[in-house]
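WARN retry 2 of 3 for item q-0093 after timeout on previous attempt; input resubmitted unchanged.
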Amino acid sequence: QVQLVESGGGLVQPGGSLRLSCAASGSIFSIYAMGWYRQAPGKQRELAARITNNGSTNYADSVKGRFAISRDNAKNTVYLQMNSLKPEDTAVYFCNAETLRAPRSFWGQGTPVTVSS
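OK item q-0093 returned
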């Protein structure tokens, strides 16, 4: 099984930056992809960024050019660098890990990001 712990969320002004971290533990060798999803109040959860073990990345159109996902294999950690933040980026950000074995998806508890003046 996989456990995920997020950190780095907080309050930031529009145009500012934050870096989220997600540390994985447990059956880390079973992970083939990790990503960041976000859920704003009253909205459905959506993919922000994802990275596979092959290094392939994909981003939501709304964050392309502003967010960058990366990983540190030595620390079993994935990061989300968020630049040029907008108020519409305000959401709870959840770390996700995908595995080939059941249940095939694991979630962190979420870290809130608020972009406001």
